[in-house]
Design a protein that fits this description.
The chain has 756 residues and is an alpha+beta fold. The protein folds into 4 domains: 217 residues; 116 residues, Beta-Lactamase, CATH 3.30.450; 183 residues; 189 residues, 2-Layer Sandwich (Heat Shock Protein 90). It is 64% helix and 12% strand. The chain contains 24 helices and 12 strands. The strands form 3 sheets. The chain has a 5-stranded antiparallel β-sheet with strand order 4-3-7-6-5. Strands 8-9-10-12-11 form a 5-stranded mixed β-sheet, covered by helices on one side. A two-stranded antiparallel ribbon has the order 1-2. α11 runs parallel beside α15 and α12 packs across α23.
Length: 756
């Protein structure tokens, strides 16, 4: 019959059961039997020692009697009698006390202790014997007397001692044999008890040997099973190590203290360029490669995963490390930027969360591809937007913008190339760059060319970061070259796009012209199709005219007549007014007067100033519709731009709005906050000096810069333009009523210009 194979767990249970059996069957009884055997042995030795005392007493009595008869010295015999009597007294007292009873275990099956059976008889016999020995034990004195006549004779005490000795001898002959018998019986029972205890102990030991042999067998089986299990475990560990060594993702386990376990994939070392992962905290792993905010959020997220009530699938959607940018050493001493994706999975044992498995993968290639795709899409969309914007821009204005922007780019390039060493020179370069790019951005915004406006705004962002730095060097301006190249390339692409569209339309127009010749030659073009073709040709011809006008104007240096007309610049400013008002949640109406009288030499200056004036008036001056209604004003703000020819006195340009006006206190507060003036200086400024702060580079009353305001460039651009031509700027305002900028432009020297 084949016995069923026990599992390792069953074997362990059996070994534990046998161990307890060995304890209960062998150790405890064995200890008890050994203790009883030791006690009975001590008792046997004790009783054996007491068996000599009755013999000594009898011998002492006989010696006393003999010595008295021979008139010998009896004191030694008396002392020997007293010593034996004292020992027997003490022994019988111990036998009769509870402390000594435990020495004499129960005999046989009666359960009555050996001491209990014999103590009373021994005490009774000894008391009788002790009574007869009393006079001898208390004897004091000399029992002999020397006489010359008779020699040595007994004294009265000696005679009395002789009588007491004879009486004691007679009494001992009756009691001593009985006392010996009792002591002998005790010795016999103790010996029998020893034999029984020894036999029981042998049985217990044999049982122990059997259990021990069985335990050895079971332990051997367990060791063999453990060896097989260890071999399987080593094989499993080797397989796990092979997996962790070859897997491309980083894998590791986190315990409740967010500490990384000792097992992790080799890919972690290449991902993080370190090897001390075992025992490393998750916080220290991320501390130097992500921002503090991301680190704090990630630690909170992992902590939430340990809560049983948290839905794992739901919380994964808010994983802050789903795609995180990290900065790690590339192994060559340089910091490389990568994108890592962390995934977290709970590990359960017996339905309890024990660890969190973290997998880390490098998704840099995926992110780069997505960015390239997005950039391609943005570029394609930008080209479409640019194309649509071009088709809706007045040809002369577009040509003028391209010409002016090209000049501004050359100016920016020249400023960047200009050498500088002192801090003041660097600051001056920054102000010049700000004014040039701000002018391009303003006109692009006015024309609705958002792609150019956004690039110019990005250029300004970098300039702003340089302006905020305390110390500047030439190296700080190097990144601007890339920004300038991006802006310049885009402007060139706009020009190339216009040229390609023109060539395409020229070819299309030629094809339509050939068709028209054939029709004139007598071919009928029925009413259903001929009209449609005519309309289509007319429409395309109109677009061609617009594009050709742009190219022609660009070829003439941007001096198209359309740029001078009131409709061109005014239309551009009207569109700018509408866009900025919508973005600022305001309503504004623009009125332009006298723009048809602007000389060509002042065309760009007035255009740049007008763009800045419109932006400033809507952002800073005109209130929201609700505020205006509450103040008793029309919901729609009014903005007027007036250009006047004063003859010999020059020209006057006025920009006025009916907004909230300028507050000297607000201007001083912003200047104090941004460090343009000191508190002591603020106390001494008059209104004119306060308004002069508006024209300083970098000053603005807006806290957060937008694409329309907040850079502190617009008013500085006006002042710079006036300074270049020798003009003047004046500010007039009434709080809650209006703000008026009056610019005086000097008269042009016509004769010199014509001669030139």
């Amino acid at each position: 019959m084949k016995l069923p194979r026990l599992s390792t767990r069953s074997l362990v249970v059996l070994v534990i059961a046998l161990g307890f059996s060995f304890l209960a069957v062998v150790l405890v009884p064995g200890l008890k039997l050994a203790s009883e055997l030791a006690e009975s042995t001590r008792a046997l030795k004790f009783v054996g020692q007491q068996q000599r005392n009755p013999t000594i007493i009898r011998a002492s009595l006989d010696a006393i009697r003999d010595r008295l008869s021979s008139r010998a010295y009896v004191q030694d015999s008396l002392d020997q009698l007293r010593d034996a009597t004292g020992k027997l007294d003490g022994a019988l007292r111990e036998i009769d006390t509870p402390r000594r009873v435990r020495w004499f275990s129960s005999s046989g099956g009666s359960g009555e202790p050996i001491a209990g059976k014999h103590a009373a008889v021994l005490q009774d016999l000894w008391l009788k014997e002790r009574e007869s020995l009393g006079p001898l034990l208390s004897f004091q004195g000399v029992p002999y007397q020397d006489n010359e006549a008779t020699g040595t004779v007994l004294t009265d005490k000696g005679k009395e001692l002789e009588r007491d000795v004879n009486a004691a001898i007679r009494a001992s002959k009756r009691s001593m044999p009985l006392l010996d018998n009792e002591l002998t019986a005790i010795v016999g029972e103790l010996q029998a008890l020893n034999e029984r205890s020894a036999s029981s102990l042998r049985l217990v030991m044999l049982s122990g040997v059997g259990i021990a042999l069985l335990l050895v067998a079971l332990v051997s089986v367990l060791l063999l099973a453990r060896q097989r299990q260890d071999a399987s475990l080593r094989a499993a560990r080797q397989q796990t190590a092979d997996i962790l060594r070859t897997v491309k993702d980083g894998l590791f386990l986190l315990d409740r203290k967010l500490t990384i376990g000792s097992s992790y994939s080799s890919a972690l070392e290449s991902l993080f360029q370190r090897s001390d992962f075992a025992g490393l905290s998750f916080e220290n792993l991320l501390r130097d490669i992500v921002s503090e905010k991301t680190l704090a959020t990630a630690l909170k997220f992992v902590g939430v995963l340990w809560a049983e009530r948290t839905k794992e699938n739901l919380v994964k959607t808010i994983n802050p490390l789903g795609e995180v940018e990290v900065n790690v050493d590339d192994g060559k001493g340089k910091i490389a930027t990568r994108f890592l994706q962390f995934d977290f999975h709970r590990v359960r044992v017996d339905n309890e969360i024990t660890h969190v498995l973290v997998s880390v993968s490098d998704v840099t290639a995926r992110v780069d591809l997505a960015r390239e795709l997005q950039a391609s899409q943005s570029q394609a969309q930008g080209q479409v937007d640019t194309l649509l914007g071009i088709l809706h821009v007045d040809p002369a204005q577009l040509a003028s913008f391209l010409s002016d922007s090209n000049a501004a780019m050359k100016m920016i390039n020249a400023v960047l190339r200009e050498p500088a060493r002192e801090e003041s020179a660097f600051r001056k370069k920054l102000d010049t760059l700000f004014r040039q790019v701000h002018s391009v951005k303003g006109e692009a915004a006015a024309l609705g060319l958002s792609s150019i406006e956004s690039r110019a705004h990005s250029f300004e962002d970098h300039l702003k970061s340089l302006r905020d730095k305390t110390d500047l060097s030439g190296n700080d301006f190097l990144p601007l070259v890339i920004k300038l190249d991006d802006l310049l390339t885009h402007l060139q692409s706009v020009g190339d796009l216009v040229a390609r569209l023109s060539r395409l339309h020229t070819a299309t127009s030629s094809a339509h012209a050939d068709t028209a010749v054939i029709e004139d030659g007598g071919v009928e073009a029925g009413n259903e199709t001929g009209g449609g073709k005519a309309v289509d040709a007319a429409g395309k011809a109109g677009d061609a005219d617009r594009l050709e006008a742009v190219l022609a104007a660009a070829g003439d240096g941007g001096k198209a007549e359309g740029g001078k007309g009131e409709g061109g610049v005014t239309g551009m400013l009207q569109k700018l007014t509408a866009r900025v008002a919508v973005e600022q949640n305001k309503e504004a109406a623009l009125q332009c007067t006298g723009f048809e009288t602007i000389p060509d030499e002042y065309r760009r200056i007035v255009k740049d100033i007008s763009v800045q004036a419109v932006r400033n008036a809507i952002v800073h001056g005109i209130e929201s519709p609700n505020e205006r209604l509450a103040l008793g004003k029309p919901a729609q703000g009014a903005l007027r731009l007036i250009f006047q020819d004063l003859g010999e006195a020059g020209y006057k340009y006025i920009a006025e709005d009916d907004g909230q006006g300028l507050s000297t206190e607000r201007i001083k507060s912003a200047a104090l906050k941004k460090g343009f003036i000191t508190p002591e200086k603020a106390q001494t400024l008059d209104a004119k000096q306060v308004f002069a702060l508006l024209f300083q580079a970098g000053f603005s009353t807006v806290e957060n810069a937008t694409k329309d305001a907040g850079r502190g460039v617009g008013m500085n651009l006006m002042a710079s333009l006036m300074q270049q031509i020798g003009g003047k700027v004046a500010v007039a305002t009434m709080p809650g009523k209006f703000t008026r900028l009056t610019l005086t432009l000097p008269q042009l020297k016509r004769a010199d210009t014509e001669a030139a």
